[in-house]
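A further point concerns the way the authors explain their paired sequence and structure data. Nothing conveys this as quickly as seeing an actual entry. An entry of this sort, consisting of the sequence and the corresponding backbone structure tokens, reads as follows:
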Amino acid sequence: MDINRDELSRIKDVLRSNPRGMNVIEIARAINMHRQSVAKYLEMLVIAGHVDVKAFGPSKVYYISRRLPLSAMLNLSSNFILVADKDLRIININDRFLDLSKTKRDDILNKDLEHFSFLPGIEPPIMPRVTEALKGKESCIEAHYKKRGNEQFFNIKFIPLVFDDGQPGVTIMFEDITGRELMDKAIRESEEQFRVLAETISAGVALYQGENFINANRAFEHITGYSNKELLTMKFWDIAHRDDKVMVKERGLTRQRGQAVTPQYECKLITKSGEIRYVEFNAGYIVYKGKPGGVITCFDITERKKAEEKLKENEDSLAKAQQISHFGSWKLYMETGRMSVSNELYRILGFESAQAAMGSEININKLLEYIHIEDRARFTDNMETALHDKGGHSLDVRIIRRDGNERILHIEQEVTFSDAGHPMFLYGICQDITERKRIEEDREELIRQLRESNEQLSMIMHVTESSATTLSLDETLNSILNRLIRDMSADVCAILLKDNGRVYIQSGQAEKLAQARASIPVGNGFESTIISSGKPIFLDEAQLNSGTFNPVLKEICARSLFGVPVRHRNDIIGVLYVEWMLPHAFKKQEQDVLQIIADRCGASIMMQSFMKRPKNFIDKTYINRNKYF
């Protein structure tokens, strides 16, 4: 039938005036037209999108369409869209396409599609697809556009359509996929670079995902004896020795879950021929084709292990006792300030690896933050010295790791200069020497203790020899007290003895000071406390200032006081005490030595008191025991 546009307009006008909808009979009656003709026109309007239809049982109700105009829909899209008719004339194009092609709408509308200047730069050509779309076949291709240095990638759809007059047309929709293509290209190039690198380096490299190997280089094949094809059929832990199989499996699976695992370790492998090989693994986490996986770099250290075992062949616990030292290193580019560091330095500072430290990259300022604040100036001074002296320089510094632990590093720094004498690179290496330092400190402490023990043993021997060779009690006690003053760096040493209700005072210092210390009321004095308890007492400055004991001690500026009971068999016959005018720390070993000397003095005193009744006592100063002591 011939299309009468006036009749189409009349149908749309009557539907527009009846927004609740009308059926065919109502429309035919309203515009005075045969209902079959109305039905044909309605079918065309529905196809063109101008009218919507809803079915209510056998009856159909028609409404004026509320759809957006085609031009508005084109401009809402983020794609580049143009519409052509059967004669390949461009009848619509959206604003984004105009911007892309740098053309004006008036210059392109109703022009031949084949003459559109943008299209010749597209590969493959699109005109065959346009022809197929005019015949009703929808299709889609990926195309590449390059013109005047501009390179883009598109996903192009060819969608058949029918115009209001029933004539065919085509909508061509360009989706920009340049970003995705460039990313895919970069990934392909990266994978190729990795493949080339893996094939050219001497270290064995293998990729695994899940439980299986997915690739391996020739060096890995050489180490294991398996071909790449054979490895792809194996679990990644199948090559491990039975002693290390569980460890390799657990670490590999744990690493793929994103959990922290030691990146570097040694283990034993069983080659295809059954030979045991020792390797050093460096393992890391990767994402391969969107899924987590792992990469292994391994070095064959079998010959090194054999050499170590030959040198230590009689040490059964070599594997457990030996610990390989790890060195961290860095390279500072003097011109730019950029710094490259080794994975081992990250480990020393408390990271699992460089990958685990992403976001915490080390530069010279960051490295200074890890160095103890009291050692930073020495570290920077060492760098300046290396820059000016043109030689290697070393120092030991403390660092504070990420976990808060303090460690000691030995650092060596050296600068590389250009031919013109300008500094180019500063190289640094460091080694954790904390354990070595602790061993040295323990050794020094042991030497000090041995020296003290030797001095104390010498004192005890001196007391014993004095007691055995000297008949005079005065000479014996004075010799002992003066030796104590010298060897203990004391200011005063004294012995107070009981004798028939009196006290005999013997002092290594002035008698006046000794008398003052003995003038203490019964029950409150330092000596009386030792006599009554039979136990040694050590008083530091705080206790002396508390007023618990005789204030005379404070008046004579005593800062520390040590007293032990003088015994003979089960009887306490006096007190041996030592005073310091400067603070002195309590040492249990000193107490034990003083007690031994006091007991030797007690034995000597009682022996001489029996041999020669105490005329020496009577000739000395006496103080009433009930009033003092």
Remarks:
- Residues 434-469 form the longest helix (36 residues).
- Residues 315-323, 500-523, 613-629 have pLDDT under 50 and may be disordered.
- The CA atoms of residues 375 and 589 lie 36 Å apart.
- The radius of gyration is 50 Å.
